[in-house]
């Protein structure tokens, strides 16, 4: 893979607001080095040079002690890169794997021992309206829910909000945490009174789902993301005990539009405005979901 065109990801500046002790970035990725970790599904973007050392430096700069690495589709079903990153992190990292019916209880137990805590399922479409290469649908999560429950794992879903509203009731009976990526894929254009968004708030209020408040995939209005604030306020009001925060670093396919992690942390502090709730979102909730 030495000939592949890669990019250096944007490294953050330190936020003005100090993060609480043991803060967690619940959604980011590692890539490379490519001479050791070859891509299984070469993406249609220049992949980043984001090995574990650079990832840990990113966490250190913004004051996050821990991180959760999500398996990118470009690495397919091979979890080796994340497993090695977790092992090299001195207990600072956990992982979300990619997999389906091929996973046996013994294999899940092995992955759990390596620091993985769940599986990602993707029904979001790419900009051309096609499924992402290597994506595994949430329909598989429904089939695997008993196995996940037995392992103490959870499904992590990335889809549009209408799909979430359809799938979540099928997962609730299994009593497992249901984690939704990227602000649960709500529609900015439909507003906070959209019935699907209101249903999501009820799921949160009842304690069934956790939502990752990653901003950059829901809006290009960096750095203030004004159009997202009403939704973020509604999520916090619905149930701050069911919110997680993730940077989405190293911002795959975003190029010069990549945000600064430190700036986004400051924005969350400003929007939430309450130290106890900030600690809940950055420390207490991820400690429960990921076992930090």
Automatic annotation (TrEMBL):
This is TIM-barrel fold metal-dependent hydrolase. Residues 1-23 are annotated as: Disordered. Residues 24-292 form the Amidohydrolase-related domain. One of its GO terms (molecular function) is hydrolase activity. InterPro entries: Amidohydro-rel (IPR006680), Aro_Compnd_Degr_Hydrolases (IPR052358), Metal_Hydrolase (IPR032466). Keywords: Hydrolase. It comes from the Bacteria.
């Amino acid at each position: 893979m030495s000939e592949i065109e890669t990019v250096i990801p944007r490294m953050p500046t330190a936020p003005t607001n100090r993060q609480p002790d043991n803060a967690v970035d619940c959604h980011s990725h590692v890539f490379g080095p490519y001479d050791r970790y070859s891509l299984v599904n070469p993406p249609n973007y220049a992949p980043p040079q984001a090995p574990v050392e650079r990832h840990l430096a990113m966490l250190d700069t913004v004051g996050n002690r821990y991180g959760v690495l999500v398996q990118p589709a470009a690495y397919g079903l091979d979890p080796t890169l994340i497993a090695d990153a977790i092992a090299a992190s001195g207990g600072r990292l956990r992982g979300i794997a990619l997999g389906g019916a091929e996973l046996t209880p013994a294999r899940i137990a092995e992955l759990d021992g390596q620091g993985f805590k769940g599986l990602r399922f993707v029904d979001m479409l790419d900009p051309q309206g096609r499924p992402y290469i290597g994506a595994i649908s949430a329909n598989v999560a429904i089939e695997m829910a008993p196995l996940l429950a037995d392992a103490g794992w959870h499904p992590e879903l990335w889809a549009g909000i209408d799909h979430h509203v359809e799938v979540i009731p099928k997962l609730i009976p299994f009593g497992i945490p249901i984690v939704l990526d990227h602000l649960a894929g709500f529609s900015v254009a439909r507003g906070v009174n959209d019935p699907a968004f209101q249903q999501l708030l009820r799921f949160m209020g009842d304690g069934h789902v956790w939502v990752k408040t990653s901003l950059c995939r829901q809006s290009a209005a960096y750095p203030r993301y004004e159009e997202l604030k009403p939704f973020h306020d509604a999520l916090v009001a619905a149930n701050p005990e069911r919110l997680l925060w993730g940077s989405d670093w190293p911002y795959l396919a975003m190029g010069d539009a990549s945000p600064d992690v430190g700036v986004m942390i400051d924005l969350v502090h400003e929007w939430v405005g309450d130290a106890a709730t900030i600690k809940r979102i950055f420390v207490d909730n991820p400690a429960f979901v990921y076992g930090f």
